[in-house]
Design a protein that fits this description.
This protein is mainly alpha-helical. 68% of the residues lie in helices and 0% in strands. Helix 1 runs parallel beside helix 3 and helix 5 packs antiparallel against helix 6. It is globular and about 60 Å long.
């Protein structure tokens, strides 16, 4: 995959985002992409990007609700549903950090993810109050959806890993003293 440059290439990437076929490993490629910000294309691109982002957020919400209802009595399934949702939120947050995304669109996207995570976590905690044992509240607290942005760091690009490997080649091995 080549870094997207045209509106059509970015549109294909956004379609893949909606379909769920865009991988985290492809984010560095998207990060090195560019887009021309002419008057007409900028508005279309921002609108298309925000629409795709919102669709994926809605898919995440419905998947979380479905997974929680299917595994309502099983702690493992609840944790798994929360983890899958948090990974999706992390992925979306990483997308908002892409260099070609302008600052105002980036802020909107990050605000949308933060807002959803806060609302979903709050709603889950409210429903957990009816659980007398407190296990559900404990699971929700320990597997909070709000922790997604702590994990959201873009994977290193190929150029940065090659620089790191060059630095380590210049370092001479030291003696190891075993006692």
């Amino acid at each position: 995959m080549k870094p997207p440059v045209t509106y059509a290439q970015w549109s294909d990437c956004l379609d893949r985002l909606i379909d769920g076929t865009l991988q985290t490993s492809e984010l560095p490629i998207l990060d090195s992409g560019k887009i021309e910000w002419s008057k007409g294309s900028a508005e279309r691109f921002a609108s298309r990007f925000a629409d795709a982002y919102d669709k994926v957020l809605k898919q995440c919400a419905s998947r979380l609700q479905k997974n929680l209802s299917l595994g309502a009595n099983n702690e493992f399934d609840i944790v798994k549903a929360l983890t899958v949702a948090r990974r999706t939120l992390t992925f979306l947050f990483q997308i908002s950090l892409l260099k070609p995304v302008p600052e105002d669109l980036r802020n909107y996207l990050q605000e949308a993810v933060n807002k959803y995570a806060k609302q979903a976590q709050s709603s889950l905690e409210q429903s957990a109050k009816s659980d007398r044992s407190g296990r559900l509240a404990s699971l929700l607290k320990n597997n909070s959806l709000l922790n997604f942005n702590k994990e959201a760091v873009l994977p290193p690009t190929d150029s940065s890993t090659s620089k790191d490997s060059q630095k380590t080649e210049n370092i001479k091995p030291q003696r190891r003293i075993l006692l």
